[in-house]
Design goal:
mainly alpha
Length: 248
Amino acid sequence: MCTRSYVWTRFTVPLLVAIFVRCESFAFVSPATTSPMSRVTSFPSSSMRSNSRLYDSSGGDNNDKESEQPVNDLDIFGQPKDKPRNKNEDEGEIRGPDRIKSCIPYTLVLIDGDSFGRYIYERIPPLGSLDYVFLRPIVDAVHVAPLLGVLLFVVFALGPQFTNQSREVRFNSQQAILIDVALIFPQLIGEAIADEKIPRALLEPCTNFVWYAYVSLVIYCVTSNLRGKIPNQIPFVSAAADMAIGPF
């Protein structure tokens, strides 16, 4: 009996010790010595995942807001900012030589309305000198040969229509004719009261008003044409001129 216990103890105890040592070696093995398959992949905790989703969502919302905001790609003139501009490009509604051609018909208005500025020329000598140098010779020629005035009227009224001028030139010519026709009414009134003894204190303001009115219209039209803009803002007159020349 003692022999059996001795034998069992002799073989069993070393076997248990060897198993225990082997288990301890597996338990305390270092990460560097483990195989790639034995490494445990670490996953973020639920709080970290929620925080990451919060940051991602906030960033996405900001991006969405930025993308939803309208982008203004136009400059102060309503043209694309990235549009290449040609320095030689003639911008405006009236281009090139048409700017000068559009101003010529208004000389007819200055000739026919020159008589309304006699009081202003007396009070402002420099204006009288300019009138004497530039307009007075043409005005005197029209008075000497009345057919010359009729010829100028017909040339400005029908000339642009038959010479295939641009629509802007024809518009300005027609508008100048209408302003000149409007001057007929104060001229008729002046001729009707020419023999009456009307005090100058009443006659001078009325005459000056007509001069200021048509000169202001001429200055507006000429400056607009030189800037390349169609002078179509005169009440009634511009609408009538636009209707007279048609859409083309």
